[in-house]
Amino acid sequence: MWGKVLGACFGFMFGRFFGLFLGLFIGHLFDKSLKQDFDNAGGFRGFFNNDDVSERQALFFSSCFAVMGHIAKSNGRVNELHIRAATAFMEEMGLTGEDKREAQLAFNAGKADDFSMNVTLREFREHFAGRFDLIQLFLEIQIQMAFSDGHLAAQEKVLLEQVAKGLGVSKTHFSFILKRYQAEFAFRQQQQRFHRQHQQQRTPSGASSGMSRAQALHILGLEEGVDASTVKKAYRKLMAQHHPDKLVSQGLPEHMMRLAQKKSQDIQAAYEYLKKAA
Question: What's the pTM?
């Protein structure tokens, strides 16, 4: 129906009565052959609101906390450090009221004995098909949860490998992401020590204070011996993958924008260090 209506209207606007009939005919073909695909995409409502984005944001939010809860129980019981990390994670996101309760419910659902991680990941992957940057960030968040107690236990690594597989991430890329996060984690720990030691001073180097060349390279996913062009290319690629506004438009909950911002800051700090050290 909508194809005929709009076809007739646009046809009349540009071709008077001849255009009207031509528009009706084209609209009829549209209704007949494309209606199902068009409806599946949200119909004309898709031009006027972001229901699809909101649905993806809700799914990202609930799936993320559920899998986090499952990882927290990776050794058969809930690790208290993981619970504190999840609480800190919620506070960092600024969750309050109903949003915080939903996050807690999802986290607890992931801890339940009947929780199916494979089903959750399959549904997530289906909804975020083609949005690899978001899939990668989802995996990075789970790695962050596993590292909340300062190290990665064997059973946690096995679970993370299962998460990566369920998301369609190759073993090679999982290893790449894991190594990058280990460098990020070490850098943030070093930052905290550095700032505790220099509470009375203001250093112009900011976020890059205390960073080593090896650390900066690993944050960018690189090894020693690469040239400036390779460093720049890796930096631009990672910044594009973690751009907060782009991720939110693809389905990242706005509450989680700060996570992407922090990762972008670490990437920026690593690149600035390497530029100055060159």
Answer: 0.71
